[in-house]
Amino acid sequence: MTKANVIFYFAFIFALWFLLSCWAWTYAMNVVISFPFAIGAFFMARAGKKIEGPTKRFKIVEGLLLIGCAIALISLVGFMIFN
């Protein structure tokens, strides 16, 4: 297994965790349990792209992070409106 593969798998898992947990704004939980993983996935994807070059698999990680950010913002607005 190459270094780029290991970085991709960790970045993918971190981005997936962020996507699944980004909506939890109750008591600002996602600031502790979600956003650190998003930051880690972002920097791992950047490091992987430096090692391997621009490939589609790191764009998957970036897409998951973008979708997670959109969900987090939408859920924050909903949380602020309805509570």
> Tell me about the biggest sheet?
none
**Helix vs. strand class:** mainly alpha
Number of strand elements: 0
Shape field? elongated
Q: What is the averaged pLDDT score?
A: 91
Fraction of residues in helices?
over 70%
Instruction: Provide the number of structural domains.
Output: 1
CA radius of gyration: 14 Å
Tell me the series of helices and strands, N- to C-terminal: HHHH
| CA(first)-CA(last) distance | 48 Å
Low-pLDDT runs of 5+ residues are: none
Number of helices: 4
* Percent of sequence in beta strands: under 5%
Summarize the entry for a quick read.
The protein has helices spanning 3-21, 29-33, 35-52, 56-82. The chain has 83 residues and is mostly helical.
Helix and strand topology:
Blueprint (H helix, E strand, L loop, with lengths): L2 H19 L7 H5 L1 H18 L3 H27 L1
Helix pairs in contact: 1-3, 1-4, 3-4
Structural key phrases:
single chain; 83 residues; mainly alpha
3D structure, described in words:
By secondary structure, the chain is an all-alpha fold. The protein has one domain (3-82). The chain is 83% helix and 0% strand. It has 4 helices and no strands. The chain has helices spanning 3-21, 29-33, 35-52, 56-82. Helix 1 (3-21) packs antiparallel against helix 3, helix 1 runs parallel beside helix 4 and helix 3 packs antiparallel against helix 4 (56-82). It is elongated. 27% of the residues are buried.
